[in-house]
Amino acid sequence: MNAVLHIKELIEQSLGKSLNFEEANSRVTLEVEDLVSVCDLLWRSPESYFDSLSCLTAIDQGPSSGDLELIYTLYSIPNHVTFHLRVLVPRLLADGSLPEVPTVSHIWKTADWHEREAFDLVGVKFTGHPDLRRILLPEDWKGHPLRKDYEEPDTYHGIQVKY
Description:
5-stranded mixed β-sheet, 22% helix, elongated, Beta Polymerase, domain 2, NADH_DH_suC, NADH_UbQ_OxRdtase_CS, alpha/beta, NAD
């Protein structure tokens, strides 16, 4: 926990922002709005040096909530520390388009495929991503299957989907 408090203080002092964090199930998660600045700091700072983005999880909280939650799992190999960042975005923007979050693929190369998966399955656009396209489903697939309100099609190009 001391390492986590130190990281929180590092971010607050460097970026001049007060942050909220929650602790549950032995996991500490820090909620951030300025994702790229925080990630860049955590990667560049020798005090934290999170050299690995282990996972990016996109979770649909459902239509009644109106939010999508993105959890970035960071790991520092030399410091043996795992840290989680959380970003909340609306499920849809006012104009009905998909939510957008800036890419962190220029910080961690692993974000390339993680962000493509989140785009493909949950429908989050990552602005500035070098190759944002579907990774698991065909390019012409309609919708995002891990959304709570997703309706699976009966057929795809004449092939029965539902059994």
